[in-house]
User: Fold this.
Amino acid sequence: MSVIPILMYHSLSEQAAPGFRKFTLKPEIFAAHLAFLQAQGYTTLTVARLAEIRLMHQEHLLPRKPVVLTFDDAFEDFYLSAWPLLQEYNATASLFVATGYLDGVSQWLEALHEGRRAIIRRAQLREIAEAGIDCGSHTHTHVHMDTVDEKKGRQELVISKALLEQILGRPVTTFAYPYGHHDRRARQWVVEAGFSAACAVKNALSHTEDDLHALARITITDQTDVATLAEFLSGQRVNLAAPGEALLTKGWRQFRRVCKKFIPAYA
Assistant:
């Protein structure tokens, strides 16, 4: 079994509202992350490439020290800040797009006072995809996939996948659950929609026996300096991804489902 750390970034920015600051990283810190990974001999993969290797049962094609960089939400700062740095360090990444907000702003973040953060544009998306960035789905309207009904959940997947494929002119095979929220129903919808891999969160180290449709990722926050990143990669702060769900995860899902009955916009 090979360990394959999958890191989850969101926004590269100097500014953020207090409620969203945790999910922003200064570009210079991301540059330091890339310099560290390069110096330590890590090779970056996309989620699409990882899935391809695993589905072919050709784990020998994995680099000696693999790492997967993922960015959720597709903020425009990926194009403006992350992508130039990835090019500088000869690295790659997967970007997950909530297609309903392309060319617009992050309306789903209004409650965190970040509803005006710019989202990547279609032309920018085509440009980075042509350069090798794996552009995957993050639903159409950034919904909680474990609390929506079946019709809505399937619709979110079908619309986002079709729209991305129309924009990019190529198959879209990867997906990331917004907020990491998923259950057995959502996982099945993702499989049936034709995605070969899907990212959850779990804050654990992924590996070659990890569920391809609920891959473990490690959340990178504004507090993740190079020393913390090194501890993540070495397993000092996180464990290997275990099969199944933690009891706390199940409890949190049930709590949100109950809340949704009384506050429809909650989850």
In short: The helical segments are 27-39, 47-55, 76-88, 122-130, 150-168, 184-193, 226-234, 247-262. The chain has one domain: 6-262. The chain has a mean pLDDT of 93. The longest strand covers residues 66-72.
